[in-house]
């Protein structure tokens, strides 16, 4: 399995909100995120999760993306855990569909999701205009500092039969408390056996800390 990395380090700038861009539709109250449509749910996070902020923009001019970021951090704003929640749908100007069949099909909160777990350093470059770039900007504006290396699980629910709308969670943690570095968890292009129990515990924590209520 090729190592694919999700960088989460803070950027040194805040992306400007494009002229005419729509405002986020979802509402945050404490550590709860309320969505009235696509899908109509309430997402409950631990009380320790602090809200960083939201952004909404046309992702690569092909999709309407709305993201919300929460973190658990120490008093010096070193991020220990991050919750990235994203609502997305392709614009009418294209015929793209979402396809996550390379990921693992799982049940989460009684819903069908696609699951993928990864780890890696946070210092890599990002694609201009990407959702990751927007997350980095939100963290930087709020003064948060991300770990040198993280591990994360991505959970995606495709919301409609046309496969043009999705809900995505990325739950990320500092890799350091595991006692391993990314390099130590890799054997060439393959993950080492030590990654499997670490991954399973990560998945358990993600499922416990992210709750979905209809």
Please describe what this structure looks like.
By secondary structure, the chain is mainly beta. The protein has one domain (27-188, 196-213). It is 12% helix and 42% strand. A hairpin with a 2-residue loop joins β7 and β8 (111-121). The chain is globular. It starts with 26 loop residues before the first strand and ends with a strand. Mean pLDDT is 92; it is low at 1-20.
List the helices and strands and how they pair.
Elements (H helix, E strand, L loop, with lengths): L26 E3 L2 E5 L3 E5 L5 E10 L3 E11 L5 E12 L13 E5 L2 E11 L9 H11 L7 E10 L6 E10 L11 E2 L2 E2 L3 H15 L1 E3 L1
Antiparallel strand pairs: 1-2, 2-3, 3-13, 4-5, 5-6, 6-10, 7-8, 8-9, 9-10, 11-12
Short description:
By secondary structure, this protein is mainly beta.
For the structure shown, list the relevant keywords:
single chain; 214 residues; mainly beta; seven-stranded antiparallel sheet; four-stranded antiparallel sheet; disordered N terminus
- The average pLDDT score comes to 92
Principal-axis shape equals globular
Domain module tally: 1
Structural class: mainly beta
Q: Between the first and last Cα atoms, what is the distance in angstroms? A: 36 Å
Give the SSE string.
EEEEEEEEHEEEEHE
Alpha-carbon Rg, integer: 17 Å
The stretches of 5 or more residues where confidence is low (pLDDT under 50) are 1-20
Name the helicity range.
10-25%
What summary fits the major beta sheet? 7 strands, antiparallel
Report strand order across the widest sheet.
4-5-6-10-9-8-7
Residues in β-strands, percent: 35-45%
Assembly of the depicted chains: single chain
Instruction: Please count the beta strands (DSSP E, at least 2 residues each).
Output: 13
Task: Specify the number of helices.
Answer: 2
């Amino acid at each position: 399995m090729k190592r694919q990395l999700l960088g989460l380090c803070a950027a040194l700038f805040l992306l400007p909100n494009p002229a005419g861009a729509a405002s986020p539709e979802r509402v945050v109250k404490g550590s709860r995120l309320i969505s009235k449509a696509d899908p109509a749910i309430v997402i409950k996070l631990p009380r320790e999760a602090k809200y960083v902020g939201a952004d909404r923009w046309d992702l690569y001019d092909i999709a309407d993306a709305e993201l919300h970021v929460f973190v658990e951090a120490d008093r010096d704003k070193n991020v220990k855990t991050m919750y990235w929640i994203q609502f997305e749908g392709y614009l009418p100007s294209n015929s793209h569909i979402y396809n996550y069949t390379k990921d693992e099909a799982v049940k989460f909160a009684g819903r069908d999701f696609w699951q993928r777990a990864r780890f890696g350093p946070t210092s890599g470059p990002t694609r201009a205009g990407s959702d990751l770039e927007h997350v980095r900007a939100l963290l930087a504006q709020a003064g948060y500092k991300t770990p040198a290396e993280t591990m994360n699980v991505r959970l995606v629910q495709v919301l409609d039969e046309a496969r043009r709308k999705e809900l995505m969670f990325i739950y990320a943690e500092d890799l350091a408390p595991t006692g391993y570095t990314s390099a130590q968890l890799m054997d060439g292009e393959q993950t080492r056996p030590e990654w499997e129990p670490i991954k399973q515990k990560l998945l358990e924590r993600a499922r416990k800390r992210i709750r979905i209520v209809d």
